[in-house]
Amino acid sequence: MPHTYFKPSAEHMRAALAQAQIALDAGNLPVGAVIVHHDQVIASGMNAIDYPPDDTHHAELRAIQSIAPFLAAHKGECTIYTTLEPCMMCLGAIINVGISSVVIAAADSYVGALNLLDGGDYYRMKSGKLQVERGFMADESQALLNEYVRRTGGRAHLASGAALQVAGTSSDTPGGRT
Ligand SMILES: [Zn+2]
Q1: Beta carbons of 118 and 124 less than 8 angstroms apart
Q2: Span 141-165, mean pLDDT?
Q3: Cα-to-centroid distance, 174 and ligand 1 (Å)
């Protein structure tokens, strides 16, 4: 059954970006996420893997876990907005809890897992129901990521223009992978 047309909301992505800003101000990589049901934000989360240290404290996963019983009762009805392409862990959680669509701002060619959606029978079957919108308000998210890299020097692959060098897929990028 084809998906009905899905129009991402700038207001909801701005709410996710606000979470990313809070993460940045706390010294964490700026990633934010909100979960929307019937056009209402019902959960939010921010990345908090550095302070305090916990490598599972990703924005998407924290938002999901904060309303897990609701999601279990409303499968196929919720959308998640995230400011950075989800990793394998978060994308798996998004699929497992039955979120129906995901709106992504900036791409993450290094950790992002969208290219894994076709892998494995279980996820191929499940992800066939998932609508994915990429690059929505990516510039706003990228500005926060650039600021994080400028402040900390960390995760430089997320800085604007660095993705191709990390991926090593470009043959015409001066100073790229050698
Ligand atoms: Zn993640």
Answers
A1: yes
A2: 86
A3: 30
Query: 59-66 and 88-96 are packed helices; what angle lies between their axes, rounded to 10 degrees?
Result: 30
Give the Cβ contact number of residue 38 at 10 Å.
8
pLDDT value of position 52 = 82
Distance between first and last Cα of the chain: 46
Neighbours of 106 (CB within 10 A): 28
Q: Which residue has the higher pLDDT, 142 or 166?
A: 142
Protein residues within 5 Å, CB atom, of ion ligand 1:
58, 87, 89-90
Token pair 């979120």 in the structure block, residue: 99
Q: Which residues are tagged catalytic?
A: 60
Distance 43 CA to ligand 1 centre (A): 16
